[in-house]
From TrEMBL:
This is Nitronate monooxygenase family protein. CDD domains: NPD_like. It is an enzyme of class 1 (oxidoreductase). One of its GO terms (molecular function) is monooxygenase activity. Coiled coil: none annotated. Keywords: Flavoprotein, FMN, Monooxygenase, Oxidoreductase. The keyword Flavoprotein applies. Pfam families: NMO. Its EC number is 1.13.12.-. It comes from Nocardioides oceani.
C-alpha cells in the first residue's frame, strides 16, 4: 500500500483519517496512518491549544494533521454583531416546534447556547494560528481552497495544504491557488459532498491535475477492497471519515454515545440523505426523524452557511443529550451500512491493510 505520500509525510500507510476526536486521530497516527483532527467544534482557542498539546504527547512522535473550515472568499464580519438577529423568526419557530414534536427536552440552563463559532471565518483563522504553534504536517480545508495568505503561511511553516473537491474544475482551481493535495470527495461521502460518485470523480480529478499533484480518494471507503479500488483509479491514498465514528476511541468525545452507536449499527447504505439542514451547504447525514421533519411540506428552506449552523447548533446539542437513536443528527457517508460493530481503531486499520493486501494478490492472479 506504500505510495509517495508515505515518504512525504513519514507514515506507513496512505490512509488519512478525518475525525473530530483527538483520541481517534492519535490512534490512527500511532497505527501508521495520518490522523487529521477536525477543529470546527472548538469555540475557543484555549480548548484547541490543550487538545493539540494532548495530540503532541499521545502520538508517539508520529505525524498528524488538522482540518479547518475556511472559505476562500473572506466575509466581512462585524465585531459585536448579533448574528442571531440575521436568522428569521420563522426558522427559529420551526426548530422550536420540531423539537417539541420530537419530544426533545431542553438543555439545563446555560448549556449549549453559544452556537458553533468554529464555522466563522475569523475563528477558523484563530484555529490555524494555534495549530501552527504545534506540529501538524498537514492543514486540510473542508471548504476548498483557503485564502492565498493562509496557504502561504502554512508553506512558510513547512506544512502541506489539502483541499476537498467535488469536481475536476474545483481541483484545478485549488492547484492554481497553491494547494498541495486534492481530496476527491465523492457523492457517497459523509458531510459536505458534491454530486459525482467516487468511481467517476477520482479519475476525473487525477487526470485533470496531472501526475505531480497527489490525490486522495474519498467517499465510500471503509474496507481494504475500497482502498485498493481508489488507488487503482489513480489516487495516491485515501481520505476516510465515517468509519472512525464506529470506533471505541470515538466514545471519548461524548458521554451520550449509545444512541449514535445504535443508529449507525442498524443503518443500511440507504439510510443517509444529502441535505442542507446541517450547515447550509449540501452534506450527507444519517436519515432520522430530524432530517425528515425538514423535508416535510411547509418546512422552511435551510439558511446559508453559517446562519444554518447557528440556527441548529443548540438543537443538535439537545438532540445529542436526549440520546434518542431515532432523532440523532450526524454526518455520515453511505459506508454506514458496513459499520455494524464498534471496534478499536487499531483493529480497523489492521483490517484495512490486510484486506488491501488480499485484494491486490487476488487481482495479480487475474493477470495474463
Amino acid at each position: 500500500m506504500r505510495t509517495p505520500l508515505c515518504d512525504a509525510f513519514g507514515i506507513d500507510y496512505p490512509i488519512f483519517a478525518f475525525t473530530p476526536s483527538e483520541h481517534v486521530a492519535a490512534a490512527v497516527s500511532r497505527a501508521g496512518g495520518l490522523g487529521v483532527l477536525g477543529c470546527v467544534r472548538f469555540n475557543d482557542t484555549e480548548e484547541l491549544e490543550q487538545t493539540l498539546s494532548w495530540l503532541d504527547d499521545n502520538t508517539d512522535g508520529k505525524p498528524y494533521g488538522v482540518d479547518i473550515v475556511m472559505p476562500m472568499k473572506v466575509p466581512e464580519e462585524v465585531k459585536g454583531l448579533d448574528v442571531s438577529s440575521m436568522i428569521p423568526d420563522e426558522h427559529k419557530q420551526f426548530v422550536d416546534q420540531t423539537l417539541l414534536k420530537l419530544g426533545i427536552p431542553p438543555l439545563p440552563e446555560g448549556e449549549g447556547r453559544d452556537g458553533v463559532l468554529g464555522w466563522l471565518h475569523s475563528v477558523a483563522r484563530s484555529h490555524l494560528d494555534v495549530a501552527l504553534q504545534h506540529r501538524p504536517v498537514l492543514i486540510a480545508n473542508a471548504l476548498g481552497s483557503p485564502p492565498k495568505d493562509v496557504i502561504d503561511k502554512c508553506h512558510e511553516h513547512g506544512v502541506k495544504v489539502a483541499a476537498l473537491a467535488g469536481a475536476a474544475k474545483h481541483a484545478l482551481s485549488h492547484v492554481q491557488n497553491g494547494v498541495d493535495i486534492i481530496v476527491a470527495q465523492g457523492f457517497e461521502a459523509g458531510g459536505h459532498t458534491g454530486e459525482v460518485a467516487s468511481m467517476v470523480l477520482t479519475p476525473d480529478i487525477v487526470d485533470a491535475v496531472g501526475p505531480d499533484v497527489p490525490v486522495l480518494g474519498a467517499g465510500g471507503i471503509g474496507s481494504g477492497r475500497q482502498v485498493a479500488a481508489s488507488l487503482a483509479l489513480g489516487a495516491q491514498g485515501v481520505w476516510t471519515g465515517s468509519i472512525w465514528l464506529g470506533t471505541e476511541e470515538y466514545r471519548n468525545l461524548s458521554a451520550n454515545h449509545s444512541a449514535w452507536e445504535t443508529a449507525f449499527t442498524r443503518a443500511t447504505s440507504s439510510d443517509t440523505v444529502r441535505t442542507r439542514v446541517y450547515t447550509g451547504k449540501p452534506a450527507r447525514l444519517l436519515k432520522t426523524r430530524w432530517t425528515e421533519a425538514w423535508a416535510e411540506e411547509g418546512a422552511p428552506q435551510p439558511l446559508p452557511m453559517p446562519l444554518q449552523n447557528l440556527l441548529v447548533a443548540e438543537a443538535h446539542n439537545r438532540i445529542v443529550a436526549s440520546n434518542d437513536p431515532d432523532v440523532i443528527s450526524m454526518p455520515v457517508g453511505q459506508i454506514v451500512g458496513r459499520m455494524n460493530e464498534v471496534r478499536p481503531v487499531a483493529d480497523v486499520m489492521a483490517d484495512l491493510v490486510a484486506e488491501f493486501d488480499e485484494t491486490v494478490k487476488r487481482l495479480d492472479g487475474f493477470s495474463v
